[in-house]
């Protein structure tokens, strides 16, 4: 797919300023002249019977403004769905480690082999932990705190089995219980803090409000990154930069002046076209 196919109109860069926003760890930009305001996400009035990407309406300074969930429009989960999906996964990984210690204890009582992962990198949480990335500095710091207690929990399997072989069953049970009270308790607290931060992120969204000839429409973004100049970026194959299904929303590709990264230029007319499908009086 050529960039001419992907981008439907010519974009004048020059000395123009652009609002660069982040949506699901992708950088998008919209002409600053089209942006009326940017506000922390206000309360949302849901509208029945509308497309999923039409979140509803917000009240901005007394005006009812349709809100487009651009994540959903791009074929991604909404930020609230993404957060709850991640929290559900974390619930499962917490229960895994409760069960891990229960099964280790049971293996001693039944004097059988312990079948669960003893390598901290091979349990379900370890595989997720080693591959998960985030730009959120708070989450990065929190995730680092998991490493020591998680490794310690898995390390006791070998010690417990040595106690079992030596007939020191009480020592094995004591070590398991101490691990529950200390390392597992620490991990449970970290899991709870992780879920809280993830859910709080859904309340940090920003509504970018566009205005044209007196009409307003808003779209939700995860964060506003910068206001900066962009330079034209000539891309032979736009499919290398963004999924082909996004081609209706992207009108050009710009090179960022601050990070040298790419930003996908959004078509502001798209949002007004979508907003025309909403009857604010329904709210």
UniProtKB/TrEMBL annotation:
It holds the Pfam family CZB. It comes from Geothermobacter hydrogeniphilus. It comes from the Bacteria. GO terms for biological process: chemotaxis; signal transduction. SMART domains: CheW (SM00260). InterPro entries: Chemoreceptor_zinc-bind_dom, CheW, CheW-like_dom_sf, CheW-lke_dom. GO terms for cellular component: cytosol. Residues 15-165 form the CheW-like domain. This is CheW-like domain-containing protein.
């Amino acid at each position: 797919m050529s960039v001419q196919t992907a981008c439907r109109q010519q974009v004048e860069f020059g000395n123009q300023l652009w609002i660069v926003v982040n949506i699901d760890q992708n950088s998008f930009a919209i002409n600053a002249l089209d942006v009326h305001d940017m506000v922390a996400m206000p309360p949302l009035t849901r509208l029945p019977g509308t497309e999923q990407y039409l979140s509803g309406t917000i009240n901005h300074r007394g005006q009812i403004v349709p809100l487009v969930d651009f994540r959903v429009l791009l074929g991604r989960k909404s930020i609230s769905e993404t957060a709850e999906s991640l929290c559900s996964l974390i619930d499962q990984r917490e229960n895994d480690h409760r069960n891990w210690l229960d099964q280790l204890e049971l293996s001693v009582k039944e004097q059988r082999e312990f079948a669960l992962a003893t390598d901290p990198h091979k349990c379900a949480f370890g595989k997720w932990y080693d591959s998960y990335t985030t730009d959120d500095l708070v989450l990065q710091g929190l995730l680092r705190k998991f490493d020591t207690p998680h490794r310690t929990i898995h390390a006791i399997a070998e010690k417990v089995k040595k106690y079992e072989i030596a007939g020191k069953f009480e020592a094995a049970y004591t070590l398991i219980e101490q691990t529950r009270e200390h390392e597992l308790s620490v991990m449970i607290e970290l899991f709870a803090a992780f879920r809280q931060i993830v859910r709080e992120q859904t309340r940090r969204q920003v509504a970018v409000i566009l205005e044209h000839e007196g009409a307003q429409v808003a779209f939700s973004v995860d964060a506003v990154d910068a206001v900066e100049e962009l330079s034209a970026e000539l891309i032979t194959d736009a499919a290398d930069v963004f999924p082909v299904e996004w081609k209706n929303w992207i009108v050009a590709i710009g090179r960022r002046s601050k990070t040298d990264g790419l930003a996908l230029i959004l078509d502001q007319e798209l949002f007004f076209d979508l907003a025309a499908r909403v009857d604010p009086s329904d709210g």
